[in-house]
């Protein structure tokens, strides 16, 4: 193929520069600049048009309202709050309520979904069928309907506080929620928490040492039992050394309500149960798919080495299945967090509910919706970052 050349003044033939629209790299850069410019122009138009309309209707803009008095109560909160606090504190309370239900829900969902996923593959026909019925039933019922169902159970089925169910001493279940005793705060509990954190660090180092020792010598170490002894024994030892404080705040019925202890409201319980039971069905399917992705030869080889079924599952099957389980598990964690925004339908004061109240009082819907989007974006990115880090830690290293 003949090259496109040109003759310079010194008589040397040189290759003629190719037009940029024929160069794939330059053309790609040009189109990217064009798209970015179009998006920026559209954003400028929408923002300027919105600001102009707000000014025309004399609607205040900006986030100055966050420092004003909220003047509304919030039914339950993790931190102290009253109506005289600012909108900013009210939104923080809503965000903490969302974190509370999401964190507890994710932890329980992972354990429940893993258990049901393993039960789905059980050789016992009854256990396998029950797990399959649970998975199909929960997946086919919308989560919002499940929230309404559990909310109705608490308010329509459970008795009043005077006739509250008492499954164990100090624990009451009624239409006011789940009421149970909690330990009264003591300075020793701070040192117990530090001991627990130290035990976790020791367990992490022990696991690394045991894995390295096994790779070098082939000898196994009872990591689980020693780790359990550390995690339980060290905090208990510190607690006993500091006098073993065990004062409990036990709830008592006084008048028409309970005093003392802690109460998980019907809204919180309904939201938590609905999210856990719904999401656990999808987690169970991810666990089942991950386990089935491991070839049967792996199980047979492990059994031939003399490993017990529990050891085969823990040491051979699950480590290989995690690379299939973790990506969909991350998606289900994100779904649970985002589905918690449905709490507004049953009256639980999560971030969306508090933000909606703020919007109704201030009229600044654009800022309110922007805050909702920002908060859930932070929640999602944080969860994804943690799960991506964990995925890299547990992935199989090919040699």
Automatic annotation (TrEMBL):
CDD domains membership: TM_PBP2
Pfam families: BPD_transp_1
Principal location listed in the UniProt entry: membrane
Residues of the signal peptide: none
A cellular-component GO term for this protein: ATP-binding cassette (ABC) transporter complex
Transmembrane feature ranges: 28-47, 101-119, 188-206, 226-248, 268-291, 369-390
Residues in ABC transmembrane type-1 domain copies: 95-387
Transport found in the keyword field: yes
InterPro entries: AA_ABC_transptr_permease_3TM, ArtM/GltK/GlnP/TcyL/YhdX-like, MetI-like, MetI-like_sf
Molecular functions per Gene Ontology: transmembrane transporter activity
UniProt-listed Gene3D superfamilies: MetI-like
Record localization: Cell inner membrane; Cell membrane
Membrane topology according to the record: Multi-pass membrane protein
Annotated keywords: Amino-acid transport, Cell membrane, Membrane, Transmembrane, Transmembrane helix, Transport
Superkingdom as given in the UniProt entry: Bacteria
Zinc-finger is among the record's keywords: no
One of the protein's GO biological processes: amino acid transport
Family to which this protein belongs: Belongs to the binding-protein-dependent transport system permease family. HisMQ subfamily.
Protein name according to UniProt: General L-amino acid transport system permease protein
Organism, as annotated: Desulfacinum hydrothermale DSM 13146
């Amino acid at each position: 193929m003949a090259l496109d050349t040109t003759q310079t003044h010194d008589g040397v033939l040189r290759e003629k520069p190719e037009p940029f629209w024929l160069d794939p790299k330059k053309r790609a850069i040009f189109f990217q600049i064009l798209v970015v410019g179009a998006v920026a122009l559209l954003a400028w138009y929408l923002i300027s048009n919105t600001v102009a309309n707000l000014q025309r209707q004399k609607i205040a803009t900006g986030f100055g309202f966050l420092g004003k008095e909220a003047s509304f109560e919030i039914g339950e909160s993790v931190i102290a709050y009253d109506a005289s606090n600012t909108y900013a504190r009210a939104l923080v309370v809503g965000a903490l309520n969302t974190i509370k239900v999401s964190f507890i829900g994710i932890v329980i969902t992972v354990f429940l979904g893993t258990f049901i996923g393993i039960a789905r593959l059980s050789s016992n026909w009854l256990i396998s069928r029950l797990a399959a019925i649970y998975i199909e039933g929960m997946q086919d019922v919308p989560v919002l309907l499940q929230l309404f169902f559990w909310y109705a159970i608490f308010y329509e089925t459970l008795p009043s506080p005077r006739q509250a169910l008492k499954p164990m001493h100090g624990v009451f279940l009624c239409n006011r929620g789940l009421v149970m005793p909690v330990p009264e705060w003591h300075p020793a509990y701070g040192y117990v928490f530090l001991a627990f954190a130290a035990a976790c660090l020791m367990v992490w180092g022990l696991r690394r040492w045991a894995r390295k020792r096994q790779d070098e010598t082939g000898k196994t170490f009872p990591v689980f039992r020693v780790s359990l002894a550390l995690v339980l024994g060290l905090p208990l030892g510190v607690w006993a050394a500091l006098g073993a404080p065990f004062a409990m705040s036990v709830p008592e019925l006084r008048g028409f309500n309970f005093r003392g202890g802690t109460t998980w409201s019907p809204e919180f319980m309904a939201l938590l149960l609905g999210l856990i039971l719904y999401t656990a069905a999808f987690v169970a399917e991810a666990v089942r798919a991950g386990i089935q992705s491991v070839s049967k030869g792996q199980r047979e080889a492990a059994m031939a080495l003399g490993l017990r079924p529990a050891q085969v599952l823990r040491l051979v099957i699950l480590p290989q299945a995690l690379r299939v389980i973790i990506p969909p598990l991350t998606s289900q964690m994100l779904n649970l967090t985002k589905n918690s925004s449905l709490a507004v339908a049953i009256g639980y004061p999560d971030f969306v509910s508090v933000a909606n109240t703020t919007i109704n009082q201030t009229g600044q819907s654009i800022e309110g919706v922007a805050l909702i989007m920002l908060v859930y974006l932070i929640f999602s990115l944080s969860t994804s970052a943690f799960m991506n880090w964990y995925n890299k830690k547990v992935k199989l290293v090919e040699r």
